[in-house]
Amino acid sequence: MRLTVRHSVLAVILLGATCTAFGAPPFYDEWKTFGVRDGLPSNKAMAVLATDSEVWVGTDKGLSRLKNGRWKTFTPKDGLAHRAVLQLAKDPDSGDLWIATMGGLSRYSAGRFDTFTQLNSGLANDVVYGVDAGEGEVWAATAAGASRYEIQRNRWTIFDDSNTPMHEIWCYSVTIAGNEVYMAVWGGGLLEYKRDRDRWKDYRDPDGEMEIDLFRNDGLVHDVVTAAALDASDRVWIGTYFGLSSYDGRKWRNFMDHDSPLLSNFINAVTTKGKYAWLATDNGISATDRENWWSYQRDAATGEGLVIWTPAKGPEERFTTKTMFPHNYLLGSSFQGDDLWVATEKGVARGRRSGAPQAKSSRERTKAGGSKDE
User: Fold this and answer.
1) 41 neighbors 28 (Cβ within 8 angstroms)
2) 79 pLDDT exceeds 60?
3) pTM (2 d.p.)
4) How many CB atoms neighbour CB 207 within 10 A?
């Protein structure tokens, strides 16, 4: 007999109290998908950036903006460096949008595009995987090192294996976090740059094993690093293609899909909000503060959503939602207030919270990935 418990009003209240007690992130149960039929040039969304009044989506066929309920698309005909947009960043001071593409770095400012390439700037390579802006600087992660653009000085600096401890020059993403800049290097671990000291430090997988994490919590879980982000508690979260690492300046914590609620070791992007890290993977999105976890997946057969709540203490809870993002392969996420936007292989989606989402859900006390009790 299948054991399924339908939520009563009391169950909703108890679950809400439990989530509050453990400091859980919001429960997103209302999802809306946007794709070609809504105005995007392609359903393959590779990046998403939400601001107070706009949502920008990078696709393999151009850049799109959602503003006042309408989508507008920009392509190389409008001045964009390349139609394949890989990452987006907004300068908090100027409001300029910086766009990492397969053919250079573009800036969208005051309604026009400016493009930077190897030929007209100090960009290390025209294949730009990641970009971030802040503190008067723009950093670009490229296929042949990283570049820093000091805006006021109009000065470029290239960083590669000749002037940093960069063991590989394939830089995959970059994050500016106040005085620190974190560079995710494909096969080279994580690089940290102290802006006030002009000093680099590298973090590598200490056991040197490519296939397994030989010693748990001994350092970075793997050298193939895809993303890094700093949370409100000054912890660095590092996504790799072999699991997740978190470092608080003293201790490392590593998580893999076989020993934690992490949905997949294949992490494409990391976003932080408050003390939580949101991990966009090839099998859905997980959120954690190291102890408590939310995980979201789409049921390909029904189109409904599976949401798994795994508290540090107490049993795991599973819920179904009527809607979910369109595909489990996620390439990015961004917050617009409390709304969560995700970029997927089949469009971009917005997640919202309803007044009492659990009242419409079913709960099963089963382990993630396991079968239901019969």
Assistant:
1) no
2) yes
3) 0.89
4) 16
